[in-house]
Design goal:
Blueprint lengths: L1 H29 E4 L11 H11 L8 H7 L9 H11 L7 E3 H7 L25 E5 L24 E7 L7 E2 H9 L4 H8 L4 E5 L5 E3 L5 E3 H12 L10 H17 L21 H9 L3 E5 L2 E2 L4 E2 L41 E7 H11 L13 E6 L8 E8 L2 E3 L3 H9 L8 E7 L5 E3 L8
Length: 453
């Protein structure tokens, strides 16, 4: 009798255990979808976030409704940049993953509820979060091994009587990161951190856990910061790069752009701060990959956020920021950028040396538009005189820091003032030599008598 009771109890216990096990297994199998897990391997990784961003900006196409459902983290029926940010936050453990049951998943991807990918004009943004942690790495300055090539010959130009001729070296303001120099360094095997450490001396790399800031364009338009950095890298440097060879240059540009944007509190003050593509539809896939690989990295000096200007290419040496903006920036000192001298190797349509000519009548008009109180002498050969430069090219030619314009002496930022404010950027650089040809086509050399800062 006791054996029968014991057997019944054993059978009952086994039955209860089997029911519990069945319920548990069914529950586990039902939780089979993790939001943000694009590849459906049970984990949300940075790779998933990258793919979601590529889908959101139409660099990739996904027709599987189950995959699109997993990508739609905020369940708004769109696969957007906001979902990419959400996946990245989950990947770096700033947020917990969200799981859904099989029945929920099947219901969600019905034809009437299937997520879609927005057009490139759709931008989802969130407010600026609190980033709890950062990591810092000092970048040692490596000796950059580059032999200085010979400067090319000055291009032939037509001598026009009563005109000013500017023979310019390089393209841009010449301070900070040389974009063509970065490309050349990347092709010679330097990493993006080495490129940055060369052009911004003594800096420390800081990485935020995740940058999800919203940015404001100079027009007032709000955009997603990650998207904006992608568009900046595309416009500023990607058009002159090779998708495979120049990845490190793209990364260097991305870090410089993010640092510069951060230094302006994520608001572009004007259209000259940095250029950007009109939409994400113009951005190459390798640019997106490069931006994501260095996402959140920015530069500091002695613990302080820095400004990171960049430009096309130098005269062979970058210039001190004081020749452009005045003041002292210890991380923006002149460094060699000899690869720039051979810029034709990296962009055949560019030249290190360009020549621009202005008639005396046009020069007078531009000077008076800039400042009508400047008095010009009767002889145009007396209007302009270079007083000092940094000898970037030679003892006679460099980035101009001081000039006399008419009866006015400008003793700081003179070359950039002439280039930007008087000549409206119609010359490529403020590293120039200057010649006036009189009515008889005789040259008057207006370079510094005593060069050097």
């Amino acid at each position: 009798m006791k054996k029968k009771q014991l057997l019944k109890r054993l059978i009952l216990l086994i039955s209860v255990f089997a029911l519990v096990l069945t319920y548990y297994c069914s529950a586990v199998s039902a939780i089979d979808t993790v939001k943000g897990d694009y590849d459906d391997n049970g984990l949300v990784t940075t790779s998933d976030a990258r793919v979601i961003l590529r889908l959101a900006v139409r660099l990739e196409v996904e027709e599987d409704p189950d995959a699109l459902f997993r990508c739609d983290l905020n369940d708004d029926g769109l696969v957007s940049t906001a979902d990419a940010r959400g996946a990245l936050r989950v990947a770096v453990r700033l947020e917990q993953p969200v799981t859904v049951t099989a029945s929920q998943s099947e219901s969600a991807v019905s034809p009437s509820r299937q997520p879609t990918v927005p057009g490139s004009s759709v931008v989802s943004t969130t407010g600026q979060p609190t980033v709890p942690n950062t990591t810092s790495i000092f970048i040692p300055v490596d000796d950059i091994v580059m032999d200085k090539p010979a400067y090319p010959s000055i291009p032939d130009y037509e001598i026009i009587p009563d005109s000013f001729v500017f023979v310019c070296y390089g393209y841009g303001h010449g301070v900070g990161l040389s974009q063509y120099g970065a490309i050349a360094m990347a092709r010679h095997g330097y990493s993006y951190s080495q490129i940055l450490a060369h052009y911004y001396q003594g800096v420390t790399m800081v990485r935020e856990i995740i940058p999800v800031y919203e940015s404001t364009l100079h027009t007032g338009e709000k955009v997603d910061t990650v998207e904006l950095i992608c568009r900046v890298v595309q416009q500023e440097i990607a058009g002159i790069t090779h998708p495979v060879e120049d990845a490190e240059a793209l990364k260097a540009q991305a870090v410089a752009a993010y640092t510069l944007l951060k230094s302006h509190n994520f608001t572009l003050p004007n259209r000259y701060t940095m250029a950007y593509a009109s939409s994400m539809s113009e951005v190459r896939s390798d640019v997106v990959d490069a931006v994501y690989s260095v996402l959140g990295e920015y530069l500091t000096y002695n613990g302080e956020l820095i400004t990171t200007p960049f430009f096309a290419y130098s005269a062979g040496v970058t210039t001190d920021a004081s020749t452009v903006w005045g003041g002292d920036y210890p991380y923006l000192k002149p460094v060699t950028s000899y690869y720039d001298i051979e810029v034709e190797k990296y962009a055949g349509y560019r030249s290190l040396i360009t020549v621009d000519t202005f008639s005396s009548e046009e020069m007078a008009q531009r000077i008076r538009q800039y400042d009508s109180s400047i008095n010009l002498q009767e002889d145009p050969a007396q209007w302009l005189q270079v007083l000092s430069h940094d000898c970037a090219v030679s003892g006679e030619v460099g980035y101009v820091s001081a000039m006399r314009i008419g009866d006015r002496v400008i003793d700081r930022c003179a070359g950039q003032t002439l280039r930007a404010n008087i000549l409206d950027l119609d010359i490529d650089s403020h590293c120039f030599s200057l010649i006036y040809y009189d009515q008889n086509s005789q040259p008057h050399y207006l370079n510094a008598v005593t060069p050097g800062l």
